Amino acid sequence: MANIGVLGGSFDPVHNVHLEIASQSINEFKLDFVIFVPAYLPPHKNKLEVSDKHRYKMLLLALENRKDFIIDDFEINTGSVVYTYITLDYLQKKYPNDTVKLIIGSDSFNQLDTWKKPDYIAQKYGFIVIKRPNIDIDKKSIYYEYANISYLTAQDTSSTMIRNMFKKNQDVKNKLPGKVLEYIKEYDLYKK
After folding, report:
1. Distance (Å, rounded) from C-alpha 134 to C-alpha 35?
2. SS3 content of the chain, % helix, strand, coil (to 5)
3. Which residues, in sequence order, are bridge partners of residue 4?
4. Angle between helix 178-186 and helix 52-63 axes, rounded to 10 deg
């Protein structure tokens, strides 16, 4: 029986903090592996900067040397918005004898009441919560009892920040895996 963490997102682009969060979750919560699930289109966004093909390829490059990091293209293959509970149910069916937990940041955890079926997710799967800088975890949340709180505070990096740095021609090399940066430059992504 394996312990599996699920890290979803747009990964537009995938960056070093995504990888640190996954590694920390494996080490701290004794996970066997983390499944990265790139969204076709997250429910809370109208559009993404680059295509699902580019985002998937960047994830492949970022994760290529890690046997404990897996990509599942379930959401991309649907070609539409997929709610988290549907993805978790899909993964639980794929790994029927294993334990599946959702990895989220404190910002997302504090907004679970805006999600589809948060009670179902909490009770059936539970959460690994990583603190984001300047965003405390709401200890009064009705979902707190279902949360495994990491002692890690993630670095203050986001895909939005990195995209803005690209547009301003700022140096991002310490924020991205080397092969991801090469890919972005090769395809001239995030310039406009």
Report:
1. 27
2. 40, 20, 40
3. 33, 100
4. 150
Domains and CATH numbers, the chain: 3-156 (3.40.50.620)
Tokens matching residue 154: 């993630």
Strand partners, 38: 9
DSSP secondary structure of 56-121: HHHHHHHHTT-TTEEE--HHHHHTS---HHHHHHHHHHHSTTSEEEEEEEHHHHTTGGGSSSHHHH
Three-state DSSP at 26 gives helix
Strand 3-9 with 33-38, pairing:
parallel
Number of C-alpha atoms within 13 angstroms, CB side, residue 111?
A: 9
Q: How far is CA 31 from CA 5, 21, 41, 100, 107, in A?
A: 7, 12, 27, 10, 22
Q: Is the pTM of this model over 0.90?
A: yes
Closest of 48, 93, 95 to residue 190, by C-alpha: 48
Per-residue pLDDT tens over the stretch 69-106: 999 999 999 999 999 999 999 999 999 999 999 999 99
Contact present, 137 and 131 (Cβ < 8 Å): yes
